[in-house]
Amino acid sequence: MEDSRELIVVSNRGPLGFAVDENGERIVSRGAGGLVTSLRPLVARYDVTWVASALTPEERRLAARGGLEAEFAAGAPFRLRFVAHDPEAYDLYYNVAANPILWFVQHGLWGLRREDGRSFEQAWVDGYLRVNEAFASVVLDELERRPAVPVFFQDYHLYVAPSLVRERRPDAVLAQFVHVPWPRPEEWRVLPEDVVRAVHEGLLANDLVGFHTERWRSAFLDSCTGLGLDPTGTLVTAHPISVDPAEFDGLAESPAVLESERELVARRPERLIVRVDRTDPSKNIVRGLEAFGLLLDRRPDLRGVVGMLALLDPSRQTIPEYVAHRLEIERAAADVAGRHPGALELYIADDFPQSIAAYKQYDVLLVNAVRDGLNLVAKEASLVNRRDGVVVLSENTGAFEELREWVVAVDPYDLDSHVAALEQALALSADERRSRAAALRTHVRAHDLDDWVDAIDGELRRVSTMRA
Asked: Which of 165, 190, 299, 442 lies 20 to 30 Å (CA to CA) from residue 105?
């Protein structure tokens, strides 16, 4: 690493998407998801080769060509290499093994699993392992030409790939960041032991494994101990990821956001509760809507004064559990609207400018996830809010470990706790609101995305030196 600033980044989704329009012209779009945004600064610091799944016919065509040169909007160049998977294997990998099963286990949602005729064992062997093998094959091909370049795997889609690479390249520098929570050891028992062991051994094949919080780091080490695995050969760390303040400062004053904000201000109630999330069961949206309805049931004085705006991005609508959850959200919203007409606005659409406008205008921000690796909404919104808004934050988010001093805590499983937290947030004095909001902004600006990248960069250098 001292002589080379090269880096191979490996993630399921790529930083750019490629398609073809009706005229045969190529369309390039920014990759979906917060992970891509979070990793963008690495491209500015390293000569990056990014390995990702080919998800469209055009990307499959590009995969056959090998790598291609690309760049982010900011002008940072990188090399992109797509992996073309067998479609049936990818379906089993993504829609059965990774999402929802691994996701559900890691977010404490195992009880939501639905059988669809495809067993997890089949999805693991014929899907997850095959796709991880395909990723490992491409990484090994890259290391054949540049054996000293570190490899940085991302998240729960790629737990097995590091061990596959390590078998062929014992001296490779391998790292992985886990962006999701890590369950307690007993929560893994719903899965076959050989799968659980493969997940942990795959991570321990890395020189470096990173988590957002000490809570998830400790849970991982406890799981390793429970399986009789020795984690001492891997550097296991905790660094909470963050956001780019300059990016959100610019977004907050962009024409699209200002237009959305004008529309919101024209119709907003006196006090506004906002929630911005994906329609993911882990986000606990139904309980949040129910809590708002119960708040108005119990507090007639707040009717006509307090309203809620729920802006939800449709998530994983190819997965039955997610489709069912979206219907539950819509039913819960209809129930609240029936009891309290005009008090709740629900939008399910991908409209980021509208979300930023809502960030600026909230009096209370509700983030009540059942469990989150971190949760960037609490950080993004606190940066751009203009009303000294109060953040109600789930104790089970990774961000709570970092921000607990300035938020109102909520137990994500307890409906009465939700109502009490909303009441407390609405009742805080102006001075207390101002103090908390200012402290949140100061913290997020001081501990920004560059701060996280600095930490990862330093640890990559450390393990690279140890391998040298």
From this structure: 165
